[in-house]
Structure formats: C-alpha cells, structure tokens
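User: For my dataset I need records formatted as: sequence, then structure tokens, nothing else. Please produce one.
Assistant:
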Amino acid sequence: MSKSQNKTGCTLSGLVRTSLKEIESQQYGGLSREDVWEWFCAKHGVTVTKATFVNLLYRARKRAKKEQIKKAHLAGLSVQQVASLALSPQRKSSSSVNGKKEQKSASEEAQNDKISVWRARKAELEKSDPIEIIKKLQKAGKIKA
C-alpha cells in the first residue's frame, strides 16, 4: 500500500506540496522531470504515472504562487496599517498634515464604496431568495400559505 493510501489525510497532492522545495532544487540542479519523478516515487513509496506527477507538480507550483501572492498582499496591508498608526510625535507642517488627511479620506471612501457594494449585493440576494419571495407574496395576499 502506498504512503498516500495508508495515512489518513496524506494525499499525493500533499506529498508533492511538502516536497516542492526539494523537487525545485533538484530541477534547478539539472535533473530532468523523469529523474525527479523516479526519485519522488522511490522516496515516498508511491506509484504514479509521469503525467500524473507532472500535473501534481503544476498544481503545487500554482498553489505555492497563489499563497505567495496572498502573503505579500497581507504583508502589504499590515505594513500600511502599521505605517498609519506609527506617526512620529513631531509636529508636521500643515501641508503634510492635509495631504495625510486627503489620503486617509480617500482610503475611507474606498472602504465605504466596498461596504456599499457589499450591502447592495446582500440586498439583491435577499430579493432573489425564494423563501423571501414567497413571504412577500403571502403578505401581499397573492398566494396562500
């Protein structure tokens, strides 16, 4: 029985994701995909076709890239939040203070726009909910309960 089959929660995708750094380093070292595929099957004791391995590798790289982008985005957000909170106690000139107020108001407007879009979508969902439609029709007397 292969390693992915005898352990609960251990899938082929998971094995490829956990071995991704080793796989990448071997490929950058000059090994072919076929050599890396044979190494992977031998290391983990699994039997997969080369095409399946290539597909799993593609998906693992895609997921790693998505996670890297997500981390960078979250890091950017946290840096922006910290920068806005960590203002120096020195007195600023009026032009720089007004500039920050304009930036802050622009970000607040963007936040308010997102909230209003969310509220509009929520209202649309409530309108399209079949149960809500039935309740409204019952209140209007167009259908009976």
